[in-house]
What does this fold into?
Amino acid sequence: MKKQPSIVVRGKYLLPAVGLAYVAVFIHNSNVGSAALQKSFLVFLKILPIILMVILLTSLINFFLKPKQIARKLGKESGVAGWLWTLLAGVLSHGPMYAWYPLINDLRGHGMRDGLVVTFFASRAIKLPLLPMMIDYFGWLFTLVLSIYIIAGSLLQGIAYELIERRD
It folds into this structure.
């Protein structure tokens, strides 16, 4: 597997590109540019608590868990427990998916298997706060069966990814 460039290397091109896009919009139409900048700031304020939570969680993980512990629980030797912990974490996680990218990337750096990453993101399709409304609209049996299918599908996607990765 070829090594990917670090986030810093990839990110150093994104910020200037976004800045240039804003400058181009301002030159073309300053009202639209101003509205876009204001909207971006409001979105940033909205996701700021999630970003801070992810930074806090990452800091706590780095402080309390050593790479060997993470590798044991989520690495090559994690077994069934790793899959179950990942499913539980995916179902319990809230907020936008991209807010979890830094934390998951940090866990990968400490030895988390990619199949577990796939399972985590796929299991996020179950939204605990929305389950009561789903039960109200579709009934408890439908909601239960769909949730079981989502969990099974999450596991299958993670396992399939690992099988494909192993073949490469």
